[in-house]
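Subject: Sanity check before I submit

Could someone independently write out the structure tokens for this chain? I want to compare against mine line by line before I put it in a report. The sequence has 264 residues.
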Amino acid sequence: MSSEIKSAPRPRTRRPARAHLFGPTILVAIFLATLFTAWTPSSLSVGKLSEQWALLMTPRPVGAEPAVSTPLPPLRIGIVAGHLGNDAGSVCVDENGAVTLTEQEVNQKIATLVQNSLAARGYQVDLLQEYDTRLAGYRAAALVSIHNDSCEYINDQATGFKVAAALDTRDINRANRLTACLVDRYMRVTGLTFHAGSITGDMTDYHTFSEIDPNTIAAIIETGFLNLDRDYLTNRTDKVADGIVQGILCFINNENIEPTPFPK
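---
Independent answer below. Compare away.
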């Protein structure tokens, strides 16, 4: 007012502009540190990142308890029982021509054990048939199709297992990692050898690879030959299934693996 005596204005000290950014900078730093420390293949979902970011950026009153995060749904994994619902696959017969074993039987038994083992660990596991309608656009952290090789005697070297991923996968690095994890863990658990030399186009061009969502990392494994490996596959099926489970867990949990040579 005009009746008041105005004193001379005191010069104001200008604070550096970056001081105003201190709070947000620390907030972003904490978020990034949390994000990359907790990174696993299971945290790649855009939805999960959005949820984490929204939770961190939600303002809370001073002194309020930290917000409790809504538990995320369990990670989804797809397991295909080769030939199930379609045909018998390889058929084993005795000297009289009577059927004694089919590939589909072995595949389904292994796949069911794998499903149960992963489900017991808290994962959401879909047991799928060979041409399951759910495979169209199927989205999961990983999908593994289980098969076996011929009942016929080929030669003494026709023993062991094979693993392959799609040639045209969108993420070759993660596909190679899933393949390497399956090879390393399956070989360790079962003691069977990696029969890399007989990986065929039927494996690398496996029809399921082109049906699922391109972001789903997938592989196909032939767990053995139904001729020379038949005894192991049918009498130690729990070991066969555990080798696959350990390979999937290796991929999901980003575990260390030893370098394994792959065919060119």
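---
OP: Matches mine. For the report I'm noting this point. The CA atoms of residues 51 and 70 lie 9 Å apart.
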